[in-house]
User: Fold this.
Amino acid sequence: MLGVCRQLSQAGHQAHLVGGGIRDLLLGRQPADFDVATNALPDVVLKLFGSRYAIPTGLQHGTITVLAGTPVRHVEVTTFRGEGEYLDGRRPSTVSFSATLIEDLARRDFTMNAIAFDPLSNTITDPFDGQGALCAKLVKAVGDPIRRFTEDGLRPMRAVRQATQLGFSIDPQTLASITVTLASFRMVSAERIRDEIFKMFKASMPSFGIRLMQQTKLLEEVFPELLSCVGLAAKDGSNIDVFEHSLAVLDALPPRPMLRLAGLWHDVAKPLGSVDHAAKGAEMAARMSERLRLSVAERRLLCDLVSTHEFRYAPTDSDAALRRLLRGFLGTSAGIDDILALHLANRGAYNNSIVRELSVAFCERIHTILATHPPLRSGDLAIDGKRLMQVLGLPPGRQVGILLSTLLDRVVDEPEGNTEESLLAFARTVLAKSANPI
Assistant:
């Protein structure tokens, strides 16, 4: 990165590090990467670094990706630019490359992201007091926030996400401008909104972002179903409403976006009243997932997590009963660890120490059972369909599958019977009974 700046400078051009990398550096955080802004025109940058190291990834917007360093890093080099009117709520209608550094910084979203650093002269250019915003822990728009949010409808969501990630507040004028620019937000693709939400879900307390979305009416645009949970008693020993309970579950889960999304949505069907809220919630989650443009696999995972979050057990349940429960879990696309994590977060959000202790004890028992590697799938059986057909003279077909399922039922209850000898003996008994029905 420094080499890129040096090469530009030696050729008589300006070179400044810009963007989130500078912000993170000033905050004492490890920067993910740095972007370079220069007054060198795109074709000059291409010629300077050569076709082997320069890739015209965004030529129309003045961006060239330069391969630099060892190991090789991708450094985005963008020419200072001015922008025309935004017509689609995302991109400028025209781009010009006659701008100065200050004019280039003026087009950026937030003041903390509009700071430039010249690593060769060790000087900072900060025309909009981004450093002041960092010290005050504020996300503040560059210039007129209404104009910034109208230019790119995703910026309100970016403001919420970055405030959540950094633990910042949003400048009052910037915050108030989100609600009055929702028309531009509605022009943003679901994929871009989803990506911001998933980034937000990696923060230590994502509920902060959901509250900001509620305050600015972004929540009404993205997850309107959650608003019905506000003010609805959570019951089950909780002293908070369903919305607050869902936020508590969200924060308690590991920072994996799909798991946290399931935590946020797990009780979304409770406002419907006396229904199986887990099953109904899975149906609602399927529709909400389509709005977010989740993949088929992601939708299935999310729906399985929501549908399995509510299950019954008692301390007196036998190990066999818990193995049967586990067998049911394995029939879903959700991993047992995620199911248990959601269960613990859900129970832990109740204002009831007994409920929490029971759930911890349950999970400990489950892990103890899993440590014995019990047979829970057909593939865990000591015999397979091919062997059954060979020994018992069965033809290929549905009967073999039914027999394997029956054998699995047997060993889930009695794992010690998972030997070929025992399974063949039991299979013969099953076949004899089916041949001589009462």
The first strand starts at residue 16 and ends at 18. The chain has a mean pLDDT of 91. The two ends are 82 Å apart (CA to CA).
